[in-house]
Structure formats: structure tokens, C-alpha cells
Amino acid sequence: GLFVTDYFTRTPRKLSPFRSFASIELFHFHIPEDTVMAVWNLITFKEQGGTFGDQCPDRSITVYFRSGAPSVINPLHTHFPRDTAVPGSFALTLTWTLPNRTTGVFNVTSPLPGDWFLAAHLPKDEGKISVKGLYEECQYLFQPQLIVQRLVNIAVLYPGYVTEQSMAPHNRSCLYKVFVPSYTSRVLVEVLQCHGAEGCPLWLRVRAKAPPLHNSTALDCREHSPCQLALDLPFWQHWYYVLVEKHPGVPATISFQVTVQLTDCSRPSLARPPFLPSSASMNMPHSFSSAGGLALGDSPPPASPNSTKHPVHITSASGEQCWPIRPTLRNELDTFSVHFYIFFGPNVSVPPDRPAVFVINLLPVLDSGGVLNLELRLNVSSLCGENVTVFGCLNHEVPLTSADNASVTCETEHLAGFLLSVNATASLSRLRIPYPQTGSWYLSLRSLCAMEHGFEPCTNVTAEVYLRVYLSPCINDCGMYGQCKLLRTNNYLYAACECKAGWNGWGCTDNAEAFSYGFQLLSTLLLCLSNVMFVPPVAIAVRSHYLLEAAVYIFTMFFSTFYHACDQPGIVVFCIMEYDVLQFCDFLGSLMSVWVTVIAMARLQPVVKQASVLYLLGAMLLSMALQMDRHGLWNLLGPSLFALGIMAVAWTARTIQRRHCYPPTWKRWAFYLCPGALIAAAAVLLYAFVETEENYFYIHSIWHLLIAGSVGFLLPPRAKPSGRLGPLPRRKGCGYQLCVNEQEELGLVDPAVASINSICTS
């Protein structure tokens, strides 16, 4: 055949350590039909500070592959919520081959067409809390590339027609495909008129959706005559691929004929007529009142001139029978919030002689990022005292309605499903499927009576069940200790839980490492009550007549207390305002406390008459900086260095003017400035290098204590009286006289050497 190669790539993305599915990087690809080979080239490289990260440590990268929907991964081996089905996926771990770059290759032969999803993450780290901008972090970037090789012009087989083929000696195989419409219960592929050197040295292989593999359903035509391969319960609305392969070592030319017969389950005794339009293409609903529907078939296009097609009519011996399928009404409430309503429901009657079948249609791409929920509740009063059990089978792309009424399995050789059951003892059953595959899901309900030797069909008992099917973003909205997040990768939306307070799992239901209520209360009290340490600095500031500084410390103490009361991950939470407002005020108060303390230490009042301008300027600049980047390093470091620079200039000017070190006393240095500076430095080191997610509650509490304590040491004492001359005493005469020293009022001369030059008014 003729091969065509397609190439797809994605933009590199930064990988994060795994904490929950919300921390992974998801990549979406689409593989076209008739693809025989898909090769993923997985490129990973390190970066640090805009250059290659040769010094970054090697960290393993795990990549997950799944067709149809994102992978449901569990690298931490946590527990899933009850009644949750976990679909499988394939995982691959990449190791580093070069100091700053590695490449992995993942090949898939004959992949399933449609959507494919790749999920990648780094291993879980120790949870260190780093200050943004303190140092250049190592970044691990991941870029997947996809190369597909697909066949074009694959020969199409039409049901009921014979296709003649001659396989030359240099050819090893011939590939065909046939489309299977809805309401098909059986596919029969047969090789006729096979002529070769040694009988019929051919292998017949059949596979749904993609070309056959070595482990696909196969039949050796040398050992079976006639060479017929039958598939019961095929997938509806999909292509089936037929591969006729020559045995190794057969050099001769082999001629044969291939035919495909589809059985309409509404007329199991006859094959599908070749000249009638299909019920699926006409969008005709089946009758609700009868078990059988309209017997309709497919009409083939004109035959190709390169092959000869002859219509045949083969009677099927299959006893399979399909039942009327009741549709559901789709009601979209929000993103991943969809309810499927049943006509004449939600109570469903399950007769004893036939199953009740329903179809749930999930839209491609749009619905695969949520959770499919199914709830089945039995009305016990409808059983009339019989020991009835209602079994439900949920299958993808084809309903499982076995003719054996005593069977309670939802699986066949080529089909797997989910089993639910309700009875008088357990009247409620639930099923949750995270990230379900899109397409048609079929639910078959059957009622059987329990006997001594198993289950048997019931007589004259019609069970009534309540059926609820809906699509939700997360399982139970992630519970009390989680947050359901809506995430996006390019144009694909999906939802995932982000757990807190030590809870883990897909629905935040695994409490193996969960924080107890006492621990949550203790951490909240430590973070909140540690702000009481600001009371001594407030008292010192008030006593020293630093009223503006005292107001800033009170502001910081108030908002830091209630911010940490609102910022807790568990249930011990108390918010007096919106979280963002509390966080902004807490950060602003912390930075303003540093600013006003250092400006007060500079003692600018004798030098700059209106020193309050610096306080107002600092407040405006800090507010702007916090609005730009609330967690940046320079938000804390920049204002602090600027204020320290002002203080250094002021102290240096005083030292030069007085020709003596400022502050002048060694006691001020030994008992106040040095201890305060050491305490502040220790607080900064704890905040920047020691704090982690596990020790946050007590390390950050110590940070509160140290910062407040350093303020008490660093705040300067009360300013002494300047010794200026006051107004001269009034001299009594015929009137009164008010004398004011003009130069002193203007602050131009030293009051100790001021001469009296008065302006008198009588």
C-alpha cells in the first residue's frame, strides 16, 4: 500500500513535582484512521537561569499514555473513593542520558484512532517553600512529538459482496476494512475459493478500529475449512480491519475471495440486506413497544473496477437478539455538569422476560475530562416478596444483551464492562468512572431471581428501579478537604481535585496522612496567637510617641492574625473578608512595618521637616509592588534595602557632623541594635531556607515572634527635647507685647546662639 507520514509537535512545558492530578502536564494528540505506526519522540531538557542546566540534579520523569481520555494515575498509591472504576493506562519512565538533555521513544503499532493523551510529571518532592527570585531554580521542560504512518486507499469490503484477490509472490498480506453499523450482532468474515501450492496457506486476522496485530483474533485457513472467522457483539459505528496474511516461505501466487456478512440483531435469522439504507444513517428510532425494530441494512457505493464484487445472501445461524434501546435526554447545566434524563423516567420498569437497555452519549473531547456517575436504587416494594436481584451492565460502544438469562457477567472475550446489582438487602448501587471514554455507553438492566443453584429468570415480577446518570467535574466535589479545579491544556478542558490538610487520593478521601482536628486547631492557634508578639512593640512605640509606627504594627497584627485564620487548609478556618483582601493587607502590613521601623531608626525629623512624606511614598510604592507580584523577592528586599540606605545616609551625615559614631553610646549598640539585627537575620534565614509545607505552621509562627521581637529592639527611644528658646515673656504695659524669635521659628540658626531679633505687636 501507499504510506503517508504525518508529524505533530507540542510546545515545551515546565514539569512540576506530583502532588495531585492538578500538578501534571497534559498533552492532547489526535491519531488519524488507518494508522499503522505511531512514534512518540519524548524530548526532555533542563534549564537554569535561561541557560542549560548542567548542574541540575537528574530527576526521573514519568509519562502516561491512554487512548480516548486522560490517564487516571495514582503514583502515590493512595486509595480511590468507593464505587470508583479505575481505567488502565501505560506508563513510561525517562532516565537521563546527557547532562542536560534526554530523549525517549515510544512506539505503538496499529494504534487506536482518535484522541490520545499524554500526562507527565516529576516525582514528589519534600515540599520546600522557596522565596520567588531568591535563586535560579532548575526547570525540567518536556516536549512530546508524534510521527504517524498511515495507509491510504485501503480496500473496502461491502457486506454481502465477494471481493476477488490474487496475492503475488512478493506480497505477504492484503488489508481490507468494513464498516459495522449500529444494531449489528455478528460479523462473519470468510475466505472462499482459496488456491495455493499447499491448500490454503493463509492467516485470517480481524481487529476493530485499527489494523490487526500479531495477537488479534486469528484463524489458520490450512486447519479450518471453510475458513470462517465470526465475531459476536462487534463495536457499533466503527471500522473493522481484515488482514489476509500469507504463511512464511510460500513463494507461489495465491488467489482467493473474501466476503463479509453482518447480522442485523433485529432480524437474527437473516443477514443484513445489501440494498436498504441503515437505520443509523436514517436516524430512525426503534419502537419502544416491541422487541424487534426495522430490519435495515447498508447500501454500498459503486464497485471499484479493479475488483469483482458479487452479491451473496447468507443465512446466519446466530441466535443473538437485540432489544429496543431507550435514548436519554442531555441537559447541560455547566462545564462537566450534565444530567441525562430518561423519557418516562427516572423510575424504570425491568420486565422478567427481557432486559431494559439505555444509551448515554458522551460528546467527543468535551465530556472526557469529568466523571461519569451512575446511581441505581431498587424499589423494594415492587418485588412482591420475591428474592429478585436487578443486574446492570454498563458497556462502551455496544450493549451486552446475552441470550443466557442466567448469566450475570458483563464481559466477553472482546468486551469488558462494569457490573452493578441491587436487591432487597442492598437496594443502592453506585458507579463512578473518572475520565470516561467518549461515545455511546449502553446500560442493560435485567432482573433475575435467586435460587438454590444460582440465578434463574423470574416469573410475573416486574422490578422497578430509580436510575440516575450524570456527569460531574470531580467525585463528590472533592469532599470537605479538597478543591475541584477546572484546568485547561490548549483547547482541552479537564477537572481534578487538589487536596489539603494531609488528605490524598483522587477524591481527597484517603486519610492515611490526614491532619487530625486537634493538629489543625493547634496550627491555627500558633499562627494566629504568635502575632500577639506585636503587642510589646506597639506599647514601646506608643510610649516613645511613635504613634504612626504603632498604628502600622496594629494593622499588621490584626490582618496577619485573620489572614492565617482564613488561610488554613482544614476545617478550622475563619474568614472575616475575602481571602485575597486579607492576603494583600497582611503582606502590605508586613512590608510597611519594616519600612516605618527603618525610617524611624534614621531619625529624619530634625533633617527633613516633613518626614511623613516618606511614609506615604513607601505605602504607595509597596501597594503597587504587591499588586504586580505578591510573592516576589524584591517586594521584601527592595523596600528594605532602600530604607536601610536612607538610614545609612542619615547616620553617616550625623557621624560626620558630630565627628563621633552615631548612635553615640555603646549600650545602644550592644543591648539593642546588635540583638535586634541578629534576631531579624535569624527570622529571614528561617523564612527563606528552612520553611517547608510540613513545618510551616511552627516555623512561620517563630518568624512572627522573631520579627515582632526585632522591632522591639530596633525601634529608637523617645526623642529628647531640642532645647529651643520659647517665646519671650510678655511685658506688661499700657497694652501687651508678643515677641517671637523669627530665626528660631524658621529653623535657620542654632537656638543656643540665637540673638534676639523680635517682632513686637502691641
From TrEMBL:
Recite the UniProt keywords alphabetically.
Cell membrane, Membrane, Transmembrane, Transmembrane helix
Q: Which Pfam families match?
A: DUF3522
Q: How does it sit in the membrane?
A: Multi-pass membrane protein
Compartment(s) of residence: Cell membrane
Chain coiled-coil ranges? none
- Name the domain of life: Eukaryota
InterPro entries referenced in this protein's UniProt entry, alphabetically: EGF, NGX6/PGAP6/MYMK
Q: Which residues form the EGF-like domain?
A: 497-508
Q: Which GO terms describe its cellular component?
A: plasma membrane
Transmembrane domains' residue ranges: 514-534, 546-565, 571-595, 607-626, 632-653, 669-690, 696-715
Main subcellular localization, coarse class? Answer: membrane
| PROSITE patterns listed in its UniProt record | EGF_1 (PS00022), EGF_2 (PS01186)
What does the sequence similarity comment in the record state about its family? Belongs to the TMEM8 family.
Q: What is this protein called?
A: TMM8B protein
Q: Lineage from the top down?
A: Eukaryota, Metazoa, Chordata, Craniata, Vertebrata
**Gene name of this polypeptide:** Tmem8b
